[in-house]
Design goal:
4 helices, disordered N terminus, alpha+beta, 28% strand, four-stranded antiparallel beta sheet, OB fold (Dihydrolipoamide Acetyltransferase, E2P), 170 residues
Amino acid sequence: MSTSKAAPESGDPQAIDTRVVRKLADILKDTGLTEIEVESGGLKIRVAREVTVQHMAAPTVHQVAAPLAATPAPVAAAAPAVEAAAPAAPAHNGETIKSPMVGTIYLQATPGSDPFIKVGQTVTQGQTLLIVEAMKTMNPIPAPKAGKIVEILVSDAQPVEFGEPLVIIE
Protein backbone atom coordinates (compact mmCIF):
# COMPACT_ATOMS: atom_id res chain seq x y z
CA MET A 1 0.00 0.00 0.00
CA SER A 2 1.46 3.35 -0.95
CA THR A 3 0.85 6.57 0.86
CA SER A 4 0.01 9.59 -1.23
CA LYS A 5 0.75 13.20 -0.47
CA ALA A 6 -2.86 13.53 0.57
CA ALA A 7 -2.23 11.51 3.76
CA PRO A 8 -0.06 14.13 5.49
CA GLU A 9 -2.38 16.91 4.33
CA SER A 10 -5.48 15.10 5.58
CA GLY A 11 -5.28 17.00 8.84
CA ASP A 12 -4.39 13.87 10.81
CA PRO A 13 -1.12 14.77 12.58
CA GLN A 14 -0.39 11.06 13.04
CA ALA A 15 -0.57 10.28 9.29
CA ILE A 16 2.96 9.42 8.15
CA ASP A 17 4.08 9.51 4.56
CA THR A 18 6.05 6.27 4.24
CA ARG A 19 8.09 7.80 1.43
CA VAL A 20 9.60 10.19 3.98
CA VAL A 21 10.55 7.29 6.25
CA ARG A 22 12.07 5.40 3.30
CA LYS A 23 14.01 8.50 2.23
CA LEU A 24 15.39 8.90 5.77
CA ALA A 25 16.38 5.22 5.79
CA ASP A 26 18.16 5.74 2.45
CA ILE A 27 20.05 8.70 3.92
CA LEU A 28 21.20 6.50 6.84
CA LYS A 29 22.35 3.83 4.41
CA ASP A 30 24.14 6.26 2.09
CA THR A 31 25.92 8.24 4.81
CA GLY A 32 26.73 5.55 7.34
CA LEU A 33 24.86 7.43 10.08
CA THR A 34 23.15 5.32 12.73
CA GLU A 35 20.13 7.54 13.32
CA ILE A 36 18.36 10.58 11.96
CA GLU A 37 15.46 12.61 13.31
CA VAL A 38 13.25 15.19 11.59
CA GLU A 39 10.40 17.31 12.87
CA SER A 40 7.77 19.05 10.79
CA GLY A 41 4.75 20.68 12.30
CA GLY A 42 3.73 18.51 15.22
CA LEU A 43 5.14 15.33 13.67
CA LYS A 44 8.54 13.99 14.71
CA ILE A 45 10.12 11.01 12.90
CA ARG A 46 13.22 9.20 14.16
CA VAL A 47 14.81 6.46 12.10
CA ALA A 48 17.66 4.44 13.60
CA ARG A 49 19.61 1.38 12.57
CA GLU A 50 22.20 -0.93 14.01
CA VAL A 51 25.57 -0.97 12.30
CA THR A 52 26.81 -4.41 11.25
CA VAL A 53 30.33 -3.64 12.47
CA GLN A 54 28.99 -3.11 15.97
CA HIS A 55 27.43 -6.58 15.89
CA MET A 56 30.80 -8.01 14.93
CA ALA A 57 32.47 -6.21 17.83
CA ALA A 58 29.92 -7.34 20.42
CA PRO A 59 30.66 -11.10 20.15
CA THR A 60 34.34 -10.36 20.67
CA VAL A 61 33.49 -8.76 24.01
CA HIS A 62 31.29 -11.72 24.94
CA GLN A 63 33.94 -14.23 23.88
CA VAL A 64 36.43 -12.56 26.20
CA ALA A 65 33.94 -12.25 29.07
CA ALA A 66 32.36 -15.72 28.73
CA PRO A 67 35.38 -17.76 29.88
CA LEU A 68 35.87 -15.39 32.83
CA ALA A 69 32.27 -15.83 33.97
CA ALA A 70 32.29 -19.61 33.39
CA THR A 71 35.32 -20.26 35.60
CA PRO A 72 35.28 -18.77 39.12
CA ALA A 73 39.07 -18.67 39.50
CA PRO A 74 39.71 -16.47 36.41
CA VAL A 75 36.96 -14.09 37.52
CA ALA A 76 38.75 -13.60 40.85
CA ALA A 77 42.02 -13.18 38.95
CA ALA A 78 40.36 -10.72 36.57
CA ALA A 79 39.33 -8.40 39.41
CA PRO A 80 42.94 -7.50 40.35
CA ALA A 81 43.74 -7.06 36.65
CA VAL A 82 40.95 -4.50 36.37
CA GLU A 83 42.19 -2.75 39.50
CA ALA A 84 45.73 -2.82 38.11
CA ALA A 85 44.48 -1.35 34.83
CA ALA A 86 42.72 1.51 36.61
CA PRO A 87 45.92 3.10 37.97
CA ALA A 88 47.56 2.65 34.55
CA ALA A 89 44.96 4.91 32.93
CA PRO A 90 45.87 7.98 35.02
CA ALA A 91 49.54 7.37 34.13
CA HIS A 92 48.62 8.90 30.77
CA ASN A 93 48.28 12.53 31.63
CA GLY A 94 47.25 12.93 28.03
CA GLU A 95 44.31 14.53 26.38
CA THR A 96 41.62 12.34 24.84
CA ILE A 97 40.62 13.51 21.38
CA LYS A 98 36.92 12.71 20.83
CA SER A 99 34.92 12.49 17.63
CA PRO A 100 33.21 15.80 16.88
CA MET A 101 30.54 14.02 14.83
CA VAL A 102 28.94 10.74 13.85
CA GLY A 103 30.66 9.12 10.91
CA THR A 104 33.29 6.64 9.75
CA ILE A 105 36.89 6.96 10.92
CA TYR A 106 39.81 6.64 8.52
CA LEU A 107 43.39 6.32 9.75
CA GLN A 108 45.00 7.18 6.39
CA ALA A 109 44.26 9.50 3.47
CA THR A 110 43.75 6.71 0.93
CA PRO A 111 43.50 2.92 1.18
CA GLY A 112 46.98 1.40 1.27
CA SER A 113 48.76 4.64 2.17
CA ASP A 114 50.64 5.19 5.42
CA PRO A 115 48.49 6.09 8.45
CA PHE A 116 48.42 9.71 9.59
CA ILE A 117 49.73 8.73 13.03
CA LYS A 118 51.27 5.81 14.91
CA VAL A 119 51.55 5.11 18.64
CA GLY A 120 54.70 6.76 19.99
CA GLN A 121 54.84 9.33 17.18
CA THR A 122 55.32 13.00 18.04
CA VAL A 123 52.78 15.32 16.38
CA THR A 124 52.51 19.08 16.04
CA GLN A 125 49.49 21.21 16.88
CA GLY A 126 47.10 21.24 13.92
CA GLN A 127 48.55 18.09 12.34
CA THR A 128 45.87 15.75 10.95
CA LEU A 129 45.41 12.74 13.23
CA LEU A 130 42.45 11.02 11.56
CA ILE A 131 39.61 11.69 9.14
CA VAL A 132 35.91 11.34 9.98
CA GLU A 133 33.72 10.86 6.94
CA ALA A 134 30.24 12.21 7.53
CA MET A 135 27.63 12.63 4.81
CA LYS A 136 30.27 11.91 2.14
CA THR A 137 32.46 14.75 3.43
CA MET A 138 35.97 14.04 4.72
CA ASN A 139 36.59 15.97 7.95
CA PRO A 140 40.21 16.02 9.18
CA ILE A 141 40.66 15.81 12.95
CA PRO A 142 43.63 18.01 13.90
CA ALA A 143 45.86 17.63 16.94
CA PRO A 144 44.72 20.21 19.54
CA LYS A 145 48.28 20.45 20.83
CA ALA A 146 51.78 19.20 20.11
CA GLY A 147 52.62 15.93 21.83
CA LYS A 148 53.15 12.22 21.63
CA ILE A 149 50.49 9.71 20.49
CA VAL A 150 49.92 7.44 23.48
CA GLU A 151 47.05 5.34 22.16
CA ILE A 152 44.83 5.03 19.08
CA LEU A 153 41.42 3.86 20.30
CA VAL A 154 39.74 3.19 16.93
CA SER A 155 40.41 1.11 13.85
CA ASP A 156 40.25 2.04 10.19
CA ALA A 157 36.77 2.28 8.61
CA GLN A 158 35.11 1.96 12.02
CA PRO A 159 31.81 3.79 12.58
CA VAL A 160 32.05 6.31 15.43
CA GLU A 161 29.53 8.26 17.44
CA PHE A 162 29.69 11.87 18.57
CA GLY A 163 31.99 12.20 21.58
CA GLU A 164 33.54 8.74 21.14
CA PRO A 165 37.22 8.69 22.22
CA LEU A 166 39.57 8.39 19.22
CA VAL A 167 43.15 9.11 20.28
CA ILE A 168 45.08 9.90 23.46
CA ILE A 169 47.85 12.48 23.03
CA GLU A 170 50.33 13.37 25.77
